[in-house]
Specification:
Layout: E1 2-3, H1 14-21, H2 37-54, E2 61-66, H3 69-79, E3 86-90, H4 95-103, E4 108-110, E5 128-132, H5 146-155, E6 159-163, E7 179-183, E8 194-199, H6 224-239, H7 241-258, E9 263-264, E10 275-279, H8 285-291, E11 295-296, H9 312-316, H10 321-325, E12 327-331, H11 338-356
Parallel strand pairs: 1-11, 3-4, 3-5, 5-6, 6-7
Antiparallel strand pairs: 2-8, 7-8, 9-10, 10-12
Helix pairs in contact: 1-6, 2-6, 3-4, 7-11
């Protein structure tokens, strides 16, 4: 199987797997919230992992472990007191933001252009209490001008939440954000754990009540194994920052050369180059995927797959329903083999061309 769906999830790094094994063994199962010696050892592992994950973020904040970015986003949006003021968000946010905002009574959607970008000078609503804007879009890879938007939101007295799931460990984290959500399995860590970074001085109310773990903000027993895997993956991203970026850029250039007749969805420059969202008019994506069953790529966001609905992200770019359904997403990264990648792209292009005959 040739894996080309890095936006949905990433392969577990061997270093992360190794870090987890110690806490899955017969002598590593202790509860990290227990005061005895094995519990303290587990707690120490959690502390090390917290420091490693904190290395992804700016100074002056704290890391709260969660079950993933979806829980982190919910904690941020539901836990902060906005004093009755409203929420604004980009029109192409992940459903974790859109559905949570809808559950809270709705918010103000900021439009994007045909390039998939929110304009840095976009009009903000007058009652703004919180701005939610994702760093890198999970479907089309566009990178928003987060820090510029954050400075304007702060000028209006609002807080800023950033979904950095697709950008963390790959590009510089937004330094102007007040809260940042990340997920371990998008940076070669394990599934089932993520984090919310919260700037010092910001108070949140908990979503979960019980044992008072995570400073009273997230009750529940932490898994030392998941924490250790997350921490190791984060540390590895920092260590391999430059080489990972160079590898992805090389793959991007190869892809653009091979798939030159396809139309790119979203801006070519202001995007993470490990995300290639392309379309061909008239393409039957379901047939393409059926003919290439030994490849894993996406017809859209993994979170909305199977819904039958056109992507809200591609619709926000001004694409028709047909154009959205003619689109595929190819994701690649650290463990993508260059030769295998080029072969896969040639096969995708050939199979698509056969539909035009």
């Amino acid at each position: 199987m040739i894996y080309l769906d890095y936006q949905a999830t990433t392969p577990l790094a061997p270093e992360a797997r190794e870090a987890m094994l110690r806490w899955l063994s017969d002598d590593g199962f202790a509860n990290p919230h227990s005061p005895h010696r094995p519990g303290r050892a587990a707690a120490a592992a959690v502390a090390v992992a917290r420091d490693q994950v904190a290395g992804l973020f700016p100074p002056g904040g704290r890391v709260i472990f969660t079950s993933g970015a979806t829980e982190a986003i919910n904690l941020a949006l539901k836990g902060v007191d906005l004093g009755g003021r409203g929420i604004a968000h980009s029109a192409i946010e992940h459903s974790a933001v859109l559905d949570t905002v809808a559950a809270l009574g709705g918010g103000h959607a900021l439009p994007v252009g045909g390039d998939g970008l929110v304009a840095a000078d976009v009009a903000l609503p007058p009652d703004l209490g919180l701005l939610a804007v994702m760093q890198v879009n999970n479907e089309i890879g566009t990178i928003q001008p987060v820090d510029e938007l954050a400075r304007r939101a702060h000028g209006a007295g609002a807080l800023v939440l950033v979904d950095a799931v697709q950008g963390a460990g790959k590009i510089a984290i937004p330094r102007e954000a007040d809260m940042i959500a990340v997920s371990a399995h998008k940076i070669h860590g394990p599934k089932g754990i993520g984090a919310l970074w919260v700037r010092d001085g910001i108070d949140l109310a908990p979503l979960l009540h019980g044992g008072g773990q995570e400073g009273g903000l997230r009750s529940g027993t932490l898994s030392p194994a998941l924490c250790a895997g997350f921490g190791a993956a984060a540390a590895l991203c920092i260590k391999l920052w430059e080489s990972d970026g160079q590898h992805v850029e090389s793959l991007w250039q190869t892809a653009r050369a091979i798939l030159h007749r396809w139309t790119l969805n979203g801006d070519a420059a202001q995007r993470w180059h490990g995300n290639l969202n392309l379309r061909l008019d008239g393409l039957d994506v379901a047939r393409l995927m059926s003919e290439l069953r030994d490849m894993a790529f996406s017809a859209g966001s993994a979170c909305a797959s199977g819904s039958g609905r056109p992507s809200h992200v591609l619709a926000a770019l001004g694409l028709s329903a047909a154009q959205a359904k003619n689109s595929i997403r190819i994701g690649f990264g650290r463990y993508t083999d260059h030769g295998e990648f080029a072969e896969a792209l040639h096969r995708i292009d050939t199979a698509a061309a056969m539909q035009e005959v």
